[in-house]
Design brief:
Layout lengths: L1 H13 L5 E2 L10 H15 L5 H18 L6 E4 L2 H11 L5 E5 L4 H10 L3 E5 L12 E7 L11 H11 L2 E5 L16 E5 L11 E4 L44 H17 L1 H22 L11 E4 L6 H6 L2 E2 L1 E3 L2 E5 L6 H12 L1
Parallel strand pairs: 1-10, 3-4, 3-5, 5-6, 6-7
Antiparallel strand pairs: 2-8, 7-8, 9-12, 11-12
Helix pairs in contact: 2-7, 3-7, 4-5, 8-10
Length: 353
C-alpha cells in the first residue's frame, strides 16, 4: 500500500492536466520539475550566464537513460531523432543487404533504408517478423510497440531468430521506453525519442550500440562526437570518442535540461510500477469497449489501445476535453502514469453516448 501511495503522491506533485489526456503515444505531458528546469535553462541564456550546467545535463541524461535501457553508459549516443539514428545504421550496410521490416511500421524506422536505393527492404506482417528472418537477412528492424495501434513485437523470438541466422537487430523503443521494461543489451541497436513515455521535451533521441559499435561509421559526427569536444571545434576531429558518444549529434541543450528531470522521475517511480499502472488502465478500457460492443486491435499487454472505426470521433472527444488520436480511422488511446481509472471511465461514457 505504501508503494502505491508513494507512486500516487509523486504523480500528483508533478501533473495537473487541464484535460482528460490519453495521448501519450503522440507526446506526453511535462512534469512540473521538467517545466521548472526548462525555465531555468532559458534564464541562463537570457541572462548571459555560462551554459556549463546544460552540458552536464546531457551526460546526466545519457547515464539515466542507460540505467533505464539496461546498458553501460558508454553504449549510449545522444542525438535528435530516431530517423537520424536509423540513417546512421542504414549507411553502414553494404549494397544489396537485406533489411527485414514490419508492415506499416513508423516511417522513421523504415525510410532511411528505402532511400538508400541499393538495399533489399523486405516487408512482412508484424506477427511474422521473427519467422521471416533468413540466412540472407543482414538486419531486422522493428518498433517494440507499433505507433499506429500499440501491437507489441515478439522481441524475444526476433532476437533468437536473428542469432540463429547471423542477422543484426534494431529495435525502436519510442512507444515503449518508460512504460515497458526493456533490455537494450539484447539487441545490436536500439533507439527512442524523449517526448513520449519518457516524459521529456521534444528534440532528443537516444541510440544504443554494441561495445564494438556494430560496424557503424559516425557519418554525422561533429565536434561533440570527439573524445575531447572542446579541443575539436576547428578542423577535422583528431580523435573520435572511444564510446558511443562518437555517434552524438549536436545537443539541444534546453531539451536535455528538462529531460534530465523527467528521467529522474521515471527512475523514482520505477518502470515496473509504471508498466503495471499503464497496462491496468489499458485493460480497463479494453473491457469497457467490449461492453459497448467495440473490438480494439488485438494488442495484449500494451499501454496503447486502437479501436477501428472510431477515429472520426476524435474531434468530438477533443471538444469534450478528452485528448486521443485518430490514426488511419482508428481511435488511439494511450495510457500513462498521470492517467486514472476516472479518465478511462470518462472516455467510455462519452463513447457510449
Amino acid at each position: 500500500m505504501e508503494t502505491t501511495e508513494t507512486f500516487d503522491s509523486l504523480v500528483r506533485a508533478e501533473f495537473a492536466p487541464k484535460s482528460t489526456y490519453l495521448n501519450t503515444a503522440s507526446n506526453s505531458l511535462l512534469p512540473a520539475r521538467t517545466v521548472a528546469a526548462l525555465h531555468e535553462a532559458a534564464l541562463l541564456r537570457a541572462e548571459g550566464r555560462p551554459l556549463t550546467p546544460l552540458h552536464e545535463d546531457v551526460e546526466a541524461c545519457r547515464a539515466g537513460y542507460a540505467r533505464i535501457a539496461g546498458v553501460p553508459v558508454g553504449r549510449v549516443a545522444a542525438g535528435a531523432s530516431v530517423a537520424a539514428h536509423t540513417g546512421v545504421i542504414a549507411a553502414s550496410l553494404p549494397a544489396g543487404a537485406e533489411v527485414l521490416v514490419a508492415e506499416d511500421d513508423f516511417t522513421s524506422v523504415l525510410n532511411p533504408f528505402h532511400v538508400r536505393g541499393d538495399l533489399k527492404v523486405r516487408t512482412v506482417p508484424l506477427e511474422r517478423i521473427a519467422e521471416s528472418v533468413r540466412p540472407g537477412t543482414a538486419l531486422a528492424a522493428v518498433s517494440a510497440a507499433q505507433s499506429a495501434d500499440g501491437r507489441l513485437a515478439d522481441l524475444a523470438a526476433l532476437r533468437e531468430a536473428a542469432r540463429a541466422h547471423g542477422a543484426r537487430t534494431y529495435v525502436d523503443f519510442s512507444q515503449a521506453a518508460g512504460w515497458l521494461p526493456m533490455d537494450a543489451d539484447a539487441y545490436d541497436f536500439t533507439a527512442t525519442v524523449s517526448f513520449k513515455w519518457l516524459l521529456g521535451p521534444h528534440g532528443a533521441a537516444f541510440l544504443t550500440v554494441p561495445e564494438d559499435f556494430g560496424g557503424l561509421s559516425p557519418v554525422l559526427a561533429g565536434w561533440v562526437a570527439a573524445e575531447k569536444p572542446w579541443d575539436s571545434c576547428y578542423g577535422p576531429v583528431a580523435e573520435l570518442a572511444r564510446s558511443a558518444r562518437r555517434f552524438d549529434l549536436t545537443h539541444a541543450l534546453f531539451t536535455f535540461a528538462g529531460l534530465r528531470r523527467s528521467l529522474e522521475l521515471i527512475e523514482e517511480l520505477g518502470v515496473t510500477a509504471v508498466h503495471a499502472h499503464d497496462v491496468a488502465l489499458a485493460d480497463r478500457f479494453r473491457a469497457g469497449l467490449a461492453a459497448l460492443g467495440h473490438e480494439p486491435v488485438p494488442a495484449p499487454g500494451s499501454a496503447i489501445v486502437s479501436v477501428p472505426g472510431l477515429g472520426s470521433r476524435q474531434p468530438e472527444l477533443s471538444e469534450a476535453g478528452i485528448e486521443v488520436s485518430d490514426r488511419a480511422g482508428n481511435l488511439r488511446a494511450s495510457f500513462h502514469l498521470y492517467n486514472t481509472e476516472a479518465d478511462v471511465d470518462r472516455l467510455l461514457d462519452v463513447l457510449a453516448g
